[in-house]
Amino acid sequence: MRWIIGIILNAVTVYLIANYLPGVHVDDWTTALLVALLLAVINILIWPIKWLLSLITLGLFGLIVNVSLFGLLSLVVDGFDIDGFVPALYGGLILTLEATIVRFITRK
């Protein structure tokens, strides 16, 4: 149940980023939900490596992965476009911050 809440909150965050951050464009809620779902699946698949390298780099590696995934998903998902590195960086930073807050609030 916790992962469903996380995906929905990530979708809301992606949609809000697209509405308020210049350079990030999402066509509709369905696209935002697809981006959030793909982010979750990819993060689950690379979690052990991401976790280990984040311990070594004090969380910096996790941030780099999130920024990179945010930018790369714009190449894969139709209706999700990013106009360069800076919007991808800011969007990835916002998503990382949101995920950290959600993880802190929903932990047992």
TrEMBL record:
Q: Kindly list the residue ranges recorded as spanning the membrane.
A: 7-23, 29-48, 55-76, 88-106
Native organism = Shimazuella alba
- Which keywords describe this protein according to UniProt? Membrane, Transmembrane, Transmembrane helix
Q: What is this protein called?
A: Phage holin family protein
